[in-house]
Design goal:
By secondary structure, the protein is an all-alpha fold. The chain contains four helices and no strands. The radius of gyration is 21 Å and the shape is elongated.
Length: about 90
Amino acid sequence: ISAFQVIDDLSPPSARAEAQSWTQASVFIGSAGGAAMGGALIDAAGPVAAMAAGAASVAIAAVILNVGRRLLVAPDWDVTATPRAPDSAVEAAP
């Protein structure tokens, strides 16, 4: 849930739906990939190894997030401003 809030805070309003879609896609891909790798690891080395790999993955993700959070700076979007009308018909054309 917090990832989706960060995406809302950091993406421009015009690209928010696309940013949310990419975030949701990464959740699905990570879930599917993790389940497949976990199953293969259980078959190859047993459940203890799979649990250890899962714990190591969480620890690595925590380190990456703590190091990378300094890079996440909220932009100064003025979301309260009313959209301006196009200056001409040429500017309004797609």
